[in-house]
Amino acid sequence: MEQVSAVRSHGGTQGVYTHHSRVTGTPMTFAVFVPDHAPGERLPVLWYLSGLTCTHANVMEKGEYRAACAEHKVIFIAPDTSPRGEDVPNVDEYDLGQGAGFYVDATQAPWSANFRMRSYIENELPDLIAREFPAADMTRQGITGHSMGGHGALTIALRNPGRFRSVSAFAPIASTLNCPWGEKALSGYLGPDRDGWREYVACALIEDGGRLPRLLVDQGTADPFLAEQLRTDLLQNACDAAGMTATIRLQEGYDHSYFFISTFMAEHVVWHAASLHGAP
Amino acid sequence: MEQVSAVRSHGGTQGVYTHHSRVTGTPMTFAVFVPDHAPGERLPVLWYLSGLTCTHANVMEKGEYRAACAEHKVIFIAPDTSPRGEDVPNVDEYDLGQGAGFYVDATQAPWSANFRMRSYIENELPDLIAREFPAADMTRQGITGHSMGGHGALTIALRNPGRFRSVSAFAPIASTLNCPWGEKALSGYLGPDRDGWREYVACALIEDGGRLPRLLVDQGTADPFLAEQLRTDLLQNACDAAGMTATIRLQEGYDHSYFFISTFMAEHVVWHAASLHGAP
């Protein structure tokens, strides 16, 4: 792992790091904010998975998480959304290929060689964090994300019961089985057999018995993607049908941008911190 | 004036606007955040002048001012740093020409036709704000800024006694007479007669009797521009020699970026709000 930059901000260190990923076969870049802490003190970790087109940098610059993370002593990790590079397959579209990994392990050519963001986020990067950031207490993790990354947070948490004490999302895709973004991406990465998609579909994982300990979702009512792509109603229905407690809030007039995310970021950090600093 | 965008954020509206400027002879773009307020309620105004290379967008995206402005009911205005456009003079340098207006009225060709940021910020834009934003109470104004814009805030406030109740700056240039950035820009815009520069030199205006009601400055100790360009020591000396009260804080380990600015932005907003909401 190589440190690209480390800057003092909000009483902590905002770093950017790169490493060669074994699972994607490419260099991968990610951002980590570590609040100031006592020598030997260990802090819980909050993962943030970004949405389509984003890198680690969007939330790092616009997410407004550092003040709350510093106050509540939470390490904030922002990975990239896909492998990248000239040798990595791509198409000239914003919702497939580079910047659009959808947090799946692709099975279809040409994607399968590099697009293994599930394994990267579930295994390789947490192992790296545990090795390289001694302050990170990996027994206390929360996860959140935005849009495609909100769906990523939901699916990763649903497939890994017990790993995350708290799960939240900003304007997540509810079901990749039921929206054009999901149908396009999963067709590309996983092929036409939709039964094989279910482990990458938040609502399907809930229908199939997956449970989350705590779930908080914020969704703007002026989000242009709400009706066709995000379908918060499907997530609410799945939680209701499963008897799973969830706090799903419609935020009047907010859109899909970081102007929305940054508004509710501190609340999410505080909400996660309550679980992460409480009893297990 | 035309609205480019208006987005709900942090319990207010973050807008971007454009208009044809009479004084620069070009279209000019600026950002205004207006917190939610009661019908007929009027809110004080905080100006933020940006630094070299910036537009209105840098602080709008990275400045983290909206939460504090919404809580303390302060309108936040972020102008551009120069006229821009294909027909506007420019050089291929970051510290002269477009993006580097230095808040002066240029007297030298080719700059004098368009580079009149002093008149734009002191007169034209406030008049436009007063006309177009009925919630803006122009009897209650504060001003701040970063680097070149911090110097702009100081000089504009020093030249206009009584206009601003509170003045602050992030890593301001202290004296354009005593740094390479200032010498280059003022030589270009104003010509070689350095006596004519003094109305555009913060320390000189203080030496010449200018006073500020309240001054707060934050400066990072790891700022790479501190020793050669910013010279906070000169500002401290000028304030001391003039017997002018100033709170000039050195912030250990912070640099010149928005990671620094955003860390202290809320404190500045609260500090301005105390003056802006108090008795005149």
Question: Which descriptors would you attach to this protein?
Answer:
nine-stranded mixed sheet, 280 residues, 9 strands, alpha/beta, homodimer, 9 helices, globular
Write a structural description.
The structure is a homodimer of 280-residue chains. The first copy, chain A, has 280 residues and is of the alpha/beta class. The first copy, chain A, is 33% helix and 24% strand. The first copy, chain A, has 9 helices and 9 strands. Chain A has helices at residues 56-62, 66-71, 117-132, 148-159, 180-190, 202-207, 226-230, 232-242, 258-276; strands spanning 2-9, 12-20, 27-35, 43-49, 75-79, 136-145, 164-170, 215-220, 247-251. In chain A, strands 1-2-3-5-4-6-7-8-9 form a 9-stranded mixed beta sheet. In chain A, strand 1 and strand 2 form a beta hairpin. The radius of gyration of chain A is 17 Å and the shape is globular. The mean pLDDT of chain A is 97. Chains A and B meet through strand 1 and helix 9 of A and strand 1 and helix 9 of B.
